[in-house]
Amino acid sequence: MRRFLHIAYIILCITTIMCTGPDKNISENADRKTSISSLEVQIEEVEEIAESHPDSALTLINQLIPQVSSLENELLGKAYFAQAVAYSLLAEYEKATATTYSAIKEAEVHGDSLTLIDSYNNLGIIYFYQDDYPNARDIFKQVITLSTQLKDSSRLGHALNNLGMIEGYEGNTDTELELYKKASTIFSSINEIQGLGNIILNTGTVYTVMQEYERADNYYDSAQAIFEELGYASGVQNTLLSKAENFLEMGSSLRARQHALQALEIAQENGFLHDETYTYELLVKIEESEENYSGAFGYLNDYWNKKEEIFNSERTKQIDELNMKYQTSQKEKEILQARLEIDIRKRQRSRSYKRPSYYLFHQTEEQAETE
Predict the structure, then answer these.
(1) 199-252 pLDDT, tens digit each
(2) Would you list the DSSP string of 243-283?
(3) How far is CA 136 from CA 48, 50, 143, 166, 167, in A?
């Protein structure tokens, strides 16, 4: 698709050169190409940091979207996708959903199959985070179909992993493990280490559910080693949470607390709000297991404070947006009023000019009749 767009662009350049002259056009086209290339690199950088630093990613992509919007090409869909991922990780699901649909629309318009698949996958994750497993399952199955048609092994592997998670949450353990096995084979064949780490982590959670705790811990150790080598903070944080849950199930609250606190630190450092609130919930359970109700109450208080912070942050953003719209509306009214006053003055001046003109014309007719 990019090649097709490049050819169309070249045809447009040739047409413009014939009309406006080659020197100016070549310079303008070079600037445009540089601008597009620069924006594409910046969007890719935002996608790379979105999962580890969603706040920073959101700030950057919000600055880029106005620039990308004027280009009317496939970059806008990619920008919306990066924005949607950031919103998802910040637990702003309503905005994440709306932005994901914007990405899907742009991807369909410009025939960008990869962004289309990624956007549907993100939509499935949004449903998953909100415990809407039926819709999540339908979306991930759609991603599997699209990835298979495109022969994209990496995206197929991730979709199988995500579908496996849905099956696990609905108690279909055998199906879950089978999907993980397929995904693991794919990731191993294409040497995608991060994807393989995700599969190993999720397989470990299955064995925790099956109460095979030592086997589960071996999987967690392998996953953590992969994520730490990659510098993948979200992966390390999720693995530590899983290890904490595993030790809690084993009756080792001390080691469970140790891993949960490490997970909490990573979540706080990187702004993983969804994971931070979940970690507080887990710490409440850990303290309750030791009958330390004072500690449990403290973490429960942290949990509700964080939930309130997220709610207030979202509410503040909504109020700011409404206030901005109101201020914009007021400014538009002021501008409109000023324009009306200008129009009135123009009409008044116009009538003043017309009267002398009419008078002179009328006078000329009388003069003509006299003559």
Answers:
(1) 999 999 999 999 999 999 999 999 999 999 999 898 999 999 999 999 999 999
(2) HHHHHHHHT-HHHHHHHHHHHHHHHHHHT-HHHHHHHHHHH
(3) 24, 21, 11, 7, 10
Phi and psi, residue 111, nearest 5°: 65, 30
Residue 122: phi and psi, rounded to 5, are -65, -35
pTM for this predicted structure: 0.64
pLDDT per residue as tens digits for the range 143-194:
999 999 999 999 999 999 999 999 998 889 999 999 999 999 999 999 999 9
Positive/negative CA dihedral, 50, 195, 143, 133: negative
- Cα Rg of the chain, angstroms: 30
Beta carbons within 8 Å of 233's beta carbon, 6+ residues apart: 52, 266, 269, 270
Q: Could you write out the DSSP letters of every residue in 291-332?
A: T-HHHHHHHHHHHHHHHHHHHHHHHHHHHHHHHHHHHHHHHH
pLDDT tens digits for range 39-93: 777 877 777 777 667 788 888 888 888 888 877 677 888 888 888 988 888 888 9
